[in-house]
Structures are given as C-alpha cells and as structure tokens.
Amino acid sequence: MLKMGDAIRLQREHVGLSQSGLAEKLALTRQAVSNWERDLSYPDADMLVQLSTVLNCDVRVLLGTKQRVEWQGWLRTRLQDVEEIMTLPKGTPHPDVVSVAKQYIKELDGLLRYEPNPTPQLLDITDVLAQVYRKLDTAKNPEALLNRMVNYIRVKAKAGNYIFPRPQESLLGELAWFGAKAGWNGAYMSDFSDKRQFYGLLEPMPRRD
C-alpha cells in the first residue's frame, strides 16, 4: 500500500496544486505539506477531512488504503522484457506482447477504479480497458488493438479534462510503446473516440453518458 505521504502527493498533483497552493488553501505553511509528503509528520483527523475536501477525494485515498504501489516494482522487473520487445522491427510479433500488455492494463484499470468520483469519460475508459484485456489473447494484431485503445483513452481523458497522475501515465506510456509496434498495420481510419470499435456487432456495450 502507498504510504500516506505518497498518497497525499499523488492526489495533490492530480488536482494540479503545488505544495504552496495546497498549504494556502489549508492556511498552513508549505513546510507542513512537505513534511506530510515525506512522512515526517501527519495531519490530524480534522485536518485530514479538510485535506480530502480540498483534494476532492475520499479520506481513505489519503490514508493509502485504496491505492497500490506494486506497479513500481513490477515495472522495474518488466524493463528487460519491454526493451527486448521494443528493439524488434515494426510489425514483428513477440510472444510476450500480450502477456506484458495485459499486466499493464490490469494495473492501470485497478488504479483508475480507485477514483472517488469517476466521470462518464473515466467509466468509458475502464470499460474499454476491461474489453481489450479480454480480447488481447485472440486478437490477430494485438499491437494494433493496443494502439487504438491508447488513442481512445487519450481522446476520452481530454474530453473529460482528466489528467493522469504519474503511476497511470507511466503505465499508459508503456502501452503506447506496444501500440507503436503496429506500424501502418495499426492505422485506424475512423473516429478514435468511438467506443463501439472495441465491441463486436452482437456484444452489449455499456453506455455511460
């Protein structure tokens, strides 16, 4: 689980506040916020409630009980696999693409589902992550599918004014690398924001708007 300091920092960055900006809203010094984020001190119960209000999140997010950090160690252990995949010429299949990409999708989906007040756009994104996760094993061109998924996520996030915190952005960046391997085979000549592209003709598609 995340330490409280990391959880506070990630949520502060997510809402676009500096340490000084957060301190001003709470009538505190910047040093007080810095001490929290370095786990040198902690907000008391009353301050924690105020903090969750300013940062627009559940108190449990700030306590770290709804966040995960396994992605950090996992990303490090996967670097060798990713580097090997990315040195292959475009269009060259690699047996680890699907397994590694599914792990990234699982981690990204898990982090996004912790958002306390998800927008329709964010719900669309998690729907598509789950759908692509299911389809990757049988996809004829998994890189092209990943390429379309990443573009869809970017378009939806922009429409919902959602800025990915560092952990989510790191995972999305890794998935974009895989999508780039599709080359011209991954070109999609339709609307990237079309959710229906990830669902078969007879498959039900959740509607979030």
Automatic annotation (TrEMBL):
Highest taxon, organism lineage: Bacteria
Q: Which GO terms describe its biological process?
A: bacteriocin immunity
Q: Which UniProt keywords apply?
A: Bacteriocin immunity, DNA-binding
Q: Where is the HTH cro/C1-type domain?
A: 8-62
SMART domains in the record: HTH_XRE
What InterPro entries does the entry give? Cro/C1-type_HTH (IPR001387), Lambda_DNA-bd_dom_sf (IPR010982), LciA_Immunity-like (IPR015046), Ta0600-like_sf (IPR023130)
One Pfam family assigned to this protein is HTH_3
GO-annotated molecular function:
DNA binding
Q: Which SUPFAM superfamilies would you find in this protein's record?
A: Bacteriocin immunity protein-like (SSF109797), lambda repressor-like DNA-binding domains (SSF47413)
Q: What is this protein called?
A: HTH cro/C1-type domain-containing protein
